[in-house]
Amino acid sequence: MSLLVVGSIAIDSVETPFGKVDEALGGSAVYISVAAGYFTAPVRLVAVVGGDFPERHRAFLEEHNIDLEGMQVVQGGKTFRWGGRYHYDLNNRDSLYTELNVFETFKPVIPEKYGRSSYVCLGNIDPALQRQVLEQVAKPRLVVGDTMNYWIESKPDELLKTLRVMDVIILNESEARLLTQKPNLIVAAKSIIAMGPSVVIVKKGEHGALLVTKDTIFSAPAYPLETIFDPTGAGDAFAGGFVGWVAKTDDVSPGNLRKAVIYGSTLASFCVERFSVDGLRDLTYLQIRDRYRSFMELSRLDEV
Ligand code: AMP
Hints:
Blueprint lengths: L2 E4 L3 E7 L2 E8 L1 H9 L6 E8 L4 H9 L2 E2 L3 E4 L6 E6 L6 E7 L19 E4 L4 H9 L6 E5 L2 H6 L1 H8 L4 E5 H8 L4 H11 L3 E5 L5 E4 L4 E4 L13 H16 L4 H18 L13 H14 L6
This protein binds adenosine monophosphate.
Adenosine monophosphate binds next to strand 2 and helix 8.
């Protein structure tokens, strides 16, 4: 089924203890679309770049079956740029710079043919813009959204309005605590459900993810990787794998959302094995299935 993705497209410079990349392709919408594209294609991408956006990055997106009709190109403008540095504990990163550039005046315009998208994934952008996207789409089957500390702190009222129109919110532990001021993650997730979404997914980095609904909790493990080179985009690849699987199967039942969490974790695990989007570059559906099965083995038990 059709999937619309909105978010940032970036040119990233990233340094980890294992190396660095400059001028690499990044941005929330990129990681989400590329990950989701392994399940459903073409993914409809709505984002903005400047006239300086390198041809090789555009080619990468096209090779991954991403429909670029909704990608605005601002001639004479500069693409959003982000620089980050990770420490030995890869859970900690410093943002070295955030140059919004053309992203600062971005107004998402949804091409007419995207107006009937069944699934919508709102990547990390201003929550007011996330709502503007939804206003241009005829009642989707499922709206999945992401956010970050920056919006929780700077635009809490806008974010609260947007939460009311999201079905699934994906956020990490610290964001869940910041949003609710509740230290306990289950209590925090339930408070977020009271704000609007019926499903809250809390990502816990190398400790997996929790899917919480009003009455149920599902805990997914993280894949025990020994080679993590660059955690950038893991959260977005998770969101892309999650929503891509749901769109492919067109099934929003609780059991299928649990499978989608494992597919999200699978795509995130591939993402962090290489720098930038390289971990998502050449995957096969077979590799994805194999890792999904390994995930299931991680917590399989025999009956007593
Ligand atoms: P993640 O590691 O999942 O948080 O996503 C990292 C990606 O988010 C990078 O490729 C950045 O270019 C992008 N990014 C960083 N800061 C922002 C921001 N303020 N708004 C939108 N995207 C951002």
